[in-house]
Amino acid sequence: MKIKSIYALALMGMFSCSKGTSLDGQANKKVDKPNIIVFYVDDLGYGDVGVNGLKGATTPVIDNLAQGGINFTDVHSPHATCTPSRYAMLTGEYAFRKKAQILPGDAPLLIDTNKKTLPDMLKDAGYATGVVGKWHLGLGNGSVNWNEAVKPGPLEIGFDYSFLLPATGDRVPAVYLENHHVVNLDKNDPLVVNYKKKPGNTYPTGEENPELRRQPADKQHNKTIINGISRIGYMSGGEKAIWKDEEFPDVLAGKANEFMTKHKDQPFFLYFAFHDIHVPRLPNNDWKGKSEMGVRGDVIMQMDHTVGMVMESLKKLGLEENTLVIFTSDNGPVLNDGYDDKAVELLNDHKPAGIYSGGKYSALEGGTRVPMIAYWPKHIKGGKTSDAMFSHLDFYASFADLAGVEIKKGEAIDSKDVLSALIGTSDEGRKMMLEESYTLSLRNGDWKYIEPIAKNKRIPDFMDKNKGIKGGMSKKVQLFDLSNDPAETTNVANKHPEMVKMMQAHIDSLKSV
Ligand code: NG6
Ligand code: CA
């Protein structure tokens, strides 16, 4: 048997602390497994929360979590975009192994149903597992009929319950999917989704009727207009099922509350995947105009309030004490991501990625270095800042340790157990960590290496050209010393050929697995 971590043994009452009691205070008590909630915000940058320097908006709820928990300064989303980050977090495997990229809204399920996942593993440990919010990991086997049972999806990869925005807020279908079915769908008004051509005549598009849009959009976001917003992709029918973006916070917090209430007597894992602060940014009336930064600031405040609603439900259920709450983001920040909502003009001197360069899509630190807070009143001593380096990909092995589950060979192969860093009993995370984007970057402590783009391939530069984000990709070898150059401005590869060689060799070894 693999020796379980001292922490897991303590939780199981098999290990005694110096005072002769286990951590839960009662030796031999049945395992008191904590609930786990992961708040996965969309496109929130490192600097976009109060505790990390947010200006022009406030996040009192998140700041409170940080004060009562640990604020991490060097935790990363696995990838600089959404789909691959979520793939890696839920499987414990690098996204490059699956060639994962941003998916269209009609893509098949990306995760193989035979693959062991994070919710599968927690289910084995007796957890009820639920996902509420944005999915963006594909659904079905190829061509989805939205009017029938939509599967495979989350329920086939380990979740007991799902309530989803099927793809993203800016992609059709603009309807909720609860477990296998579109919510409120009228059988006489079938929902059809097509990413290539308009399937019927029902909804106007941004191309045809730009005057119907509330926000001007780029070419890609200029198709089906729903709720005054043109989206990516075409859809027809399903009119009664159409969501209202402004209701996302209440609807999703409500579903989270239902799930937690239903499972209050057993440990649960809730993956709460925000639409906020992704585009289209549509704050509801409570938050419109509340920040000094326009809608991007307003939805940051709305998101903070949503965290508060879920925390309030948790408290009312009497479960706050023994719930490990993780607050983090799926990739770095972006201002202009397809809609002209004045995020750029109204930013003033706020820095969404903090002192780091780049943002969403980028190979630089701003692409994956995200806010991350761990809060667990029962076991985490509050008011701590930790510079332990790890990635969301490490949740898998760390939660397994926490739940007393042994990971089998071939399962979550890239995930590392960093539980002691996660709960603050140590500051040690990883020594080496991969950051994925449109290339691979590797951290070795404060060294940061960016693998060159192959000679025969184009450098992805749409972020530099259209979004004002430094992509950081090059055909040249790049090495930065973050200890004195956190913004990655000076390439020191020529000065450190041995370090470059070692780090490329490490990437090659990861690729060869
Ligand atoms: C891009 C979309 C962008 C966003 C992104 C996915 C452009 C022109 N369009 O294709 O608006 O939807 O996909 O974002 O960049 S993510 O956070 O889900 O990765
Ligand atoms: Ca995202």
UniProtKB/TrEMBL annotation:
Keyword terms of this UniProt record? Calcium, Hydrolase, Metal-binding, Signal
Name the segments for region: Disordered: 199-218
Signal peptide positions on this chain: 1-20
Highest taxon listed in the record's lineage: Bacteria
Residue stretches making up the Sulfatase N-terminal domain: 34-405
Enumerate the PANTHER family for this protein.
ARYLSULFATASE (PTHR42693:SF33), ARYLSULFATASE FAMILY MEMBER (PTHR42693)
Similarity section: Belongs to the sulfatase family.
Q: What is this protein called?
A: Arylsulfatase
Organism (species): Flammeovirga kamogawensis
The organism's taxonomic lineage, starting at the top: Bacteria, Pseudomonadati, Bacteroidota, Cytophagia, Cytophagales
